[in-house]
Amino acid sequence: MKNDLLLRALSGEPTERPPVWMMRQAGRYLPEYRVLREKYGFFERCRIPELACEITLQPVDIIGVDAAILFSDILVVPQAMGMEVQLIESKGPILPDPIKTQKDLQRITIPDIHDKLQYVFDAVALIKKELNDRVPLIGFAGAPWTLLCYMVQGKGSKTFDEARAFCYTQPELAHQILYMITETTIAYLKGQIKAGADVVQIFDSWGGLLGPEDFENISLQYIRRIVKAINGEVPVIIFAKGAWYSLKEMAATGAAGLGIDWCIQPALAREFAGDNITLQGNFDPAKLLSPIPVIKKEVTQMLHAFGNKRYIANLGHGILPNIPVDHAKAFVDTVREWEYSSINAN
To answer: What residue spans define the domains of the chain?
Structure first.
């Protein structure tokens, strides 16, 4: 691997600077991506390996990040399980026939992963070939709780009240679904790893909607099973947005890295997570709309705040579609030009 900074940071080896990549870096803020979006539907872009490969490589070539992340979507898993998923540009996901009752469970299955998601594995293999070991490739999946939110609510939401109520009023059914998603996700991530993914990240975008006890019961116990099932194959990063209160418990899963959002201070995140795990984050994506000198100043402050312990520079959530490319590049360049030795110099 020509640039193995990410892998070294996740294993706790010393690095001269933090590696840097951005969640949702392959996508809508890039003009080159928007050209493809005009020609192909969203799931076409996911299902045609050559397109997924081209989109995955764009930020590596254009922005200069230290890792590629597979271009796909967390909702390919509910699709593979038998649910219809529509992704409408600027409106988000729609699942027109959500799960509401025990009878609805008959419509979903734990699928043959190679039958339903081989196109993802083909894309991973092609991306690995085209990357030619320039940087590592990150595969990913949605956490079971986050996927259940969409499968029950049927659409995006800021609060997912229906999904939460479903778990509280029909707990047995909820846990049946979470088990099925978990088993599917384990097979899915193992398929990505076999195809060539160097790292995998579990996205629990809606973990922070749950209190600490519910997060353990409804989300973390299933994430823990996924991490345990694939541990030792490749490093695993858990990103549970808003679930800062469970960083200690997440660090105990055996994951190599924990993503954090911008709502917790780096020192506090380190205190909760401990020293034996790599932290990733946590620049507010909206701050990339600031003038470039401000971005550089604030990124430098962030780097100093995380200090010289295990760290990956990233955003605290996905990059916004209206971020200018030169602003994204300023974020990445600031990290790439920085060195840990500057902490000691100060």
So the answer is: 5-345
The answer to whether residue 150 is catalytic is yes
73 catalytically annotated:
yes
Has 133 been annotated as catalytic?
no
Using one digit for the tens of pLDDT, what is the confidence trace for 205-240? 999 999 999 999 999 999 999 999 998 999 999 999
Q: Which of 37, 40, 214, 340 does the annotation list as catalytic? A: 37
Q: Which is the catalytic residue, given 150, 188, 222, 311?
A: 150
Best CA proximity match to 114, nearest among 195, 169, 202: 195
- The matching CATH number, chosen from 3.20.20.70, 2.60.40.290, 3.90.1010.10, 3.20.20.210, for 5-345 is 3.20.20.210
Q: 166 phi and psi, to 5 degrees?
A: -60, -45
pTM confidence score: 0.97
* Catalytic-labelled residue, pool 73, 198, 204, 261: 73
Residues 92-105: pLDDT tens digits? 899 999 999 999 99
- The answer to whether 24 is a known catalytic residue is yes
Is the bond preceding residue 282 a cis peptide, omega within 30 degrees?
yes
66 is catalytic: no
Do 279 and 269 form a contact (C-beta atoms < 8 A)? yes
